[in-house]
Amino acid sequence: MKSLTALRTVNTLMLVALTALTLACGYSSKSTPPVAGTVPAIAQLSPNSATAGGATFMLTVNGSNFGTKAVVNWNGAAQAATAYVSGGQLTVSIPAAMIAASGSASITVTNPATPGTGLYGSGGTLAETSAPMTFTIN
After folding, report:
1. Residue 32 gets which letter from DSSP?
2. With 7 labelled, which of 22, 86, 103, 116 sits at a CA distance of 20 to 30 A?
3. Rounded distance between C-alpha atoms, residue 114 and residue 34, angstroms
4. Which letter does DSSP use for residue 87 in this model?
5. Are 102 and 79 members of one domain?
6. For the stretch 6-23, what's the b/e string if a residue is b when 16 or more beta carbons lie within 10 angstroms of its beta carbon?
7. DSSP alpha helices (H): ranges in the chain?
């Protein structure tokens, strides 16, 4: 019986020691929230207008702070065909259906959020979107 009691005592002490080490090493749900990301800025659209009912065309967005996974948004809808050229230029194919009728479109660029890194996945950045620029459909 003495050895069984001693074994239970050792097991209990080991459990307490492992719990203390786990907590002392910072193993918990500690994490830091994402921080603000880099805000892109649009300086120029080329072309800056199109004729209603026209054909599909390539829109070039010039500006700054474009991330490699930045996306051009047409009236708030992300355009999957966005191509990264450089930190200052993106291109996107605009389908004819988007310029079928006259009016205007709001063009923005979004740098997507980045996931946190490190042991607990903390940190990362928030998605950031540029101020809008108007594209005219004549």
Report:
1. -
2. 22
3. 9
4. T
5. yes
6. eeeeeeeeeeeeeeeeee
7. 2-24
